[in-house]
Amino acid sequence: DDPVSPSNESSSSVELLSSQNELLSSSSEELLSSSSTIVSNIYGPTQQRIPSAGATFNMGSNLSEIYSAATDGALFNSMIIENGTLEDKVHAVSFTYDFMMDETEVTRLQFVNTLTAANQLEALNTIQIGWTSSHEVAHLPTGDNLPANISFPYYIALYANARSTLEGYTPAYTINEDYSLTTDYSATGYRLPTEAEWEFAARGGTTTDFHWAGAFSMPLSETDSALISQYAVWKVNSSDLGYEVEGYGPHEVASKLPNAYNLYDMSGNLSEFVNATWDWHEYAPDNVTDPKDTSILVNSMDALHKRGGNWMSHAMFLRSSNRTYNFTVYKEYGVGFRLIRANLSI
């Protein structure tokens, strides 16, 4: 209901409407003045400031070391090493800036609110048809607080630009005629994190395989699996249950414990797109500062790197350094996103 609609029955409604409009105007100005207000919860998650300025961390991992340390490394070898040594080489990454990152993956309700406010109704309808299909075909749950499963980067850019405009920032993406994307890293608005930004944030200051300071081993013990389930929605507490059991599929955001930067679901739930073109090359061994992929991003699910693992993933895909993507029969139902802002005026 419209809280400021005048009543047809009251002669004093004009005065009431005037005072309500003044209050609404004042409230709107306050909301738009800060990215941590209710507005950010309408259009996107609350953001956390990631203390990256002046920080250096070791990005990647030595897969051979993990493999050699495993009691039974056959599965790790076949699914990770034989599919490319994407995490090698370990190299130092430094940052000259802080950035703000979404505390959770963007939810369905936030996605709907933003595209509705931006009048992007045709795109929103397409996405919602996909969500209906995911329920009917893949038996996935429905709900406003589920992470928004988005398979194509174009829709993420559409959302990011709309959210930026609605909150008074300069959009970071140019959407080309073929729906590919060009990124303006100098913009104040929202964009996907770079791989380095994502991994630094996911680690939360740790140097271990998982942000909860766990070490990876195979096979996992029951204690290891129980610990992972406190922090991640993964195959053990989701896809392994079977679709007739509650808990199958993605869970509501922030249903597990966060990392040290108060970021939820950096491991599991949905894999997350990052602002980087997919390739099979391992990292260059050189140390780098503020690395960014400036190539044009193609509008294909398989064209961008995904991070973090998802509700169907083995533990190996939940590691903070993991760059491979766990393809399954339902791969299009396993990917979503969170956004950052890097050029800050706060």
Explain what the structure shows.
- This protein is an alpha+beta fold.
- The chain has nine helices and eleven strands.
- It has helices spanning 13-32, 38-43, 63-69, 74-79, 108-117, 121-138, 153-166, 195-203, 222-231; strands spanning 47-50, 56-59, 91-94, 99-102, 173-175, 181-183, 271-277, 288-289, 304-307, 335-336, 340-341.
- The two termini are 35 Å apart.
Give a nutshell description of this structure.
The chain has 346 residues and is an alpha+beta fold.
How do the helices and strands line up, and which of them pair or pack?
Blueprint lengths: L12 H20 L5 H6 L3 E4 L5 E4 L3 H7 L4 H6 L11 E4 L4 E4 L5 H10 L3 H18 L14 H14 L6 E3 L5 E3 L11 H9 L18 H10 L39 E7 L10 E2 L14 E4 L27 E2 L3 E2 L5
Parallel strand pairs: 3-8, 7-10
Antiparallel strand pairs: 1-4, 2-3, 4-11, 5-6, 7-9
Helix pairs in contact: 5-7
Q: Tell how many strands the DSSP assignment holds.
A: 11
Give the percentage of residues in beta strands.
5-15%
Described by strand count, sense and barrel closure, the largest sheet is: 3 strands, antiparallel
Q: In angstroms, what is the radius of gyration?
A: 21 Å
Q: Please write the string of helix (H) and strand (E) elements.
A: HHEEHHEEHHHEEHHEEEEE
The first-to-last residue Cα distance is 35 Å
**Mean pLDDT, all residues:** 87
